[in-house]
Design goal:
Blueprint lengths: L1 H4 L6 H26 L15 H25 L8 H17 L3 H4 L7 H26 L1
């Protein structure tokens, strides 16, 4: 493959396109591997493990080969890795989810219909505790 790609010339915009494209492919491959290895235990999302043993075997062989292809293509095209701060990704997720919880308090729920008093009395405090816990994690991350 390197020989075929040796003469490819990309401008900056095209190079950025392929950097994003192949980064997303790497992300997808990682997600597939993670799900096949050990699907996450979750309460509100229940995964039905309906993947055949044949696919698992094929994926186990093909994903490393695909990773090597992506790596060779990136080197041959002179693509630059995107350096991402793990702290910023986690912080953004914590902040976003905290805001979503606060946006789900009883006053905001009126758009969905009449809100029972139990929502403000019981659900709002539970949502605020969740949001505060996320904010606490976010604060600890910044230290």
């Amino acid at each position: 493959m390197e020989d075929l790609l040796a003469g490819v010339h990309l401008n900056d915009n095209q190079r950025r396109h392929f950097e994003v494209l192949l980064t997303r492919l790497e992300d997808s491959l990682s997600t597939i591997e993670r799900l096949l290895a050990a699907p996450p235990l979750r309460h509100l999302t229940q995964l039905s493990d309906d993947v055949s043993p044949d696919f698992r075997s094929l994926a186990e062989a093909e994903i490393p080969r695909l990773r090597r292809q992506v790596e060779r293509m990136a080197v041959a095209l002179g693509l630059r890795p995107n350096v991402i701060s793990l702290r910023r990704i986690i912080g953004a997720a914590l902040t976003t989810d905290s805001v979503r919880l606060q946006d789900s308090l009883s006053p905001q729920m009126r758009g969905y219909g009449a809100v029972d008093a139990s929502v403000a009395e019981r659900l709002d405090p539970a949502l605020l505790r969740l949001a505060e816990s996320l904010q606490h994690l976010g604060s600890a991350l910044k230290r």
